[in-house]
Give the backbone structure.
Amino acid sequence: MTAPVDLLGLFLHFLTLSLLAIGGAITTVPEMHRYLVDRTGWLTDTSFTASIALAQAAPGPNILFVAVLGYNVAGLPGAAASMAGIMLPSSVLTLTATRWARRNREHIGLRAFAAGMTPLTLGLMLATGWLLALPFLRVDEHRWGTLALMAATVALVLKTRLGLVWMVLAGGVLGALGLV
């Protein structure tokens, strides 16, 4: 016999898990299982596993598994409670940190942090770009177009303030047209 669903309890439990989710919500799955299956009995072991598998197989953000779990517990109100709980702390933290950073952009510690993160971010972006480009670099008819697109992107990043989203869009259009 399953216990009646306590939407406030569901919300508060996922709110707490959000504060512990270093590395994303997926890292808290064992605790979600303990709560939803073992403690409350709102889901069976099979339905819990199937919920995560379904959500991970679907396109979209990985966090969607939380909504599927909540939905399987209590329908749309359960999905809303679990998603609000898991998203609220990280969203508030991000908003607060962004506002604080904007107000304190001249603080030496913040400038040092940003300066230290720039090469790391650039290196990770280049490594990701290289990894994604490798299949095209191995095909003779795409090799030079891909290298040219990569060089143009690096030049635009270094010489302009053009947003990366526009470069990704341009690369997608060039690829769709078969030019790269």
In short: The chain has two domains: 7-103, 108-176. The chain has a mean pLDDT of 87.
